[in-house]
Design a protein that fits this description.
Strand content: 15-25%
Number of helices: 9
CATH superfamily of the largest domain: HAD superfamily/HAD-like
Strand order of the largest sheet: 3-2-1-11-12-13
CATH topology of the largest domain: Rossmann fold
CATH class of the largest domain: Alpha Beta
Oligomer: single chain
Distance between the termini: 23 Å
Structural class: alpha/beta
Radius of gyration: 19 Å
Helix content: 25-40%
């Protein structure tokens, strides 16, 4: 049965570095979680290094500005590594090719400063998917024709955010991962830039090395997240311990944030073949 813990501090003693998810752990898309921010700050004050690792399809600097608006204090983290950063590396490597950007205008900073030419789908050499054009009303079903047209041309898709859904306030909205999975189901080629895939963890490990004066041992790194599919499975595949936070996308299916169903949690963990070191209702020191 999963180990439900009330406070992070006893577990934190065993780790030097945190790879902490952002959306669902540190904020809910509308406001910061003060206790989570405090816990990260306390971990840092004891000499730990806290790296926010996020599937946000934006550069880390743009994520920092969003966190500022949500009142997440800069003292809560040392660095940010985003799937947007990994995506930018791929786009740089395909210089001169025409890209169709599948996603909202707000995600355009992912291309800032890059030598990239945009084109309509029918003329594109590849696709960068950062999300739905309007995730307030659309679902992946709205993209059936678009994905079929991409598959007909055998276009390569770069998925800048492998999340399927995220919380926005009290609602769940679809992300780029939902479209990427639908495209892959059609036989399309997809490169996933964020969790649970390795490149974002390698980038985070390099960031930790720069901050710590050398790469930390993986057994001294703890991944914190609210998604079994991305956070827990990604950490396990990369050889990291994990802490599961119930307050995010799985909350309602697990009996709610305050009284999670440990039996349901155990079943989900077993099905995913993951074994987090602990479960918390919300990150709290």
């Amino acid at each position: 049965m999963p180990n439900l813990i009330e406070h992070f501090e006893p577990l934190a003693r065993d780790y030097d570095v945190l790879f902490c998810d952002v959306w669902g752990v540190v904020h809910n898309g509308v406001a910061a979680f003060p206790r989570a921010c405090e816990a990260l700050g306390r971990f840092r004050s004891r000499g730990g290094t806290a790296i926010l690792i996020t599937n946000a399809p934006r550069p880390g600097a743009a994520v920092a500005r969003i966190l500022d608006r949500l009142a997440v204090p800069r003292e809560a983290y040392d660095a940010i590594v985003s799937s947007g950063d990994v995506t930018r590396g791929i786009v740089e490597g395909r210089r001169g090719e025409r890209v169709f950007h599948l996603g909202p205008e707000r995600d355009r900073p992912i291309f800032a400063g890059l030598d990239v030419g945009f084109s309509p789908l029918e003329d594109a050499d590849y696709v960068v998917c950062s999300g739905l054009f309007d995730d307030t009303v659309e679902t992946p079903e709205h993209y059936r024709v678009t994905l079929a047209a991409m598959r007909a041309r055998d276009l390569f898709m770069v998925c800048a955010n492998p999340d399927i859904v995220v919380e926005r306030g009290d609602a769940l909205v679809y992300c780029a991962g939902a479209l990427a999975d639908a495209y892959a189901a059609l036989g399309g080629k997809v490169h996933y830039c964020g969790k649970p895939h390795g490149p974002i963890y390698e980038t985070a490990l390099e960031a930790a090395a720069a901050l710590c004066g050398g790469k930390p041992e993986r057994q001294r790194v703890l991944a914190v997240g609210d998604s079994v599919r991305t956070d827990l499975k990604g950490a396990a595949a990369f050889g990291l311990d994990s802490l599961f936070v119930v307050s995010g996308i799985h909350a309602e299916e697990l009996g709610g944030r305050e009284a999670p169903d440990l039996g349901a949690l155990d079943a989900i963990f077993r099905a995913a073949d993951v074994a987090p070191k602990g479960v918390m209702r919300g990150l709290k020191w």
